[in-house]
Amino acid sequence: MFRLYTLCTVYRLDILEVLQWYGVDLSHLPADAASIELEKTHAIHFQPHNYGEVLLPLALDPGLDLTKTTYLSRMIQRWGKLPLMLLHGLDLKTHRYAFVGTEDWSMYPLLQPGSLLLIDETKRKIVTSGWTNEFDRPIYFLEHREGYACGWCNLDGNRLMLQPHPASMCNPQVFVYPDEIDVVGQVTGVAMRLDQGRRRRTAG
């Protein structure tokens, strides 16, 4: 390491570029670290400004209504590069995203209002068995005539029941499938706040 540093000093070379000559790209360090599973909870000490750029949405449709559940990928007007750690390994532009409306409590407490959802559009077939608890049961993101929704699904012939979480106190909805509702994909990731329940209790 000291020899490499000395060579870069003598020949006025960028040490990060020299490392790339040998297949060591430091911008991949946070993403590679995240791919290694550690048993214990731990802090992350990478500095965001040191690890390259990722492609992110910079401009959203000004008509976006955050109170309603929205298919966010359709609302992105402009993409750009921003420095952000841990995301270098993701091809963000090819993924699909949705936003749970700030007044959509249908999957609370599993999905809090205001949550950002990652949607896998390759998983559109409704699975009716194979899970042992509510955390394993697939949650689907759907489009219907009045907008979007997410929840558990039961399919009986051409009748699709959109089932909310029991704790949400919301009612199930029944649609004619696929005439009245379409499965956009399965929810495979979520980023959310954990204090929305307090807001709901206060409002109630």
What does this structure look like?
- The structure is a single chain.
- The protein is α+β, with helices and mostly antiparallel strands and 204 residues long.
- The chain has a domain at 66-75 and 91-203: Ribbon (Umud Fragment, subunit A).
- Helix content is 15%, strand content 28%.
- It is built from four helices and nine strands.
- The protein has helices spanning 2-10, 15-21, 29-34, 196-203, and strands at 54-60, 76-82, 96-99, 116-120, 140-144, 147-156, 159-163, 173-176, 181-191.
- Strands 3-4-9-5-6-7-8 form a seven-stranded antiparallel β-sheet, with no helix packed on it. Strands 1-2 form a two-stranded antiparallel sheet.
- β5 and β6 (147-156) form a beta hairpin.
- Mean pLDDT is 80; it is low at 82-89.
Question: SSE layout and pairings?
Answer:
Layout: H1 2-10, H2 15-21, H3 29-34, E1 54-60, E2 76-82, E3 96-99, E4 116-120, E5 140-144, E6 147-156, E7 159-163, E8 173-176, E9 181-191, H4 196-203
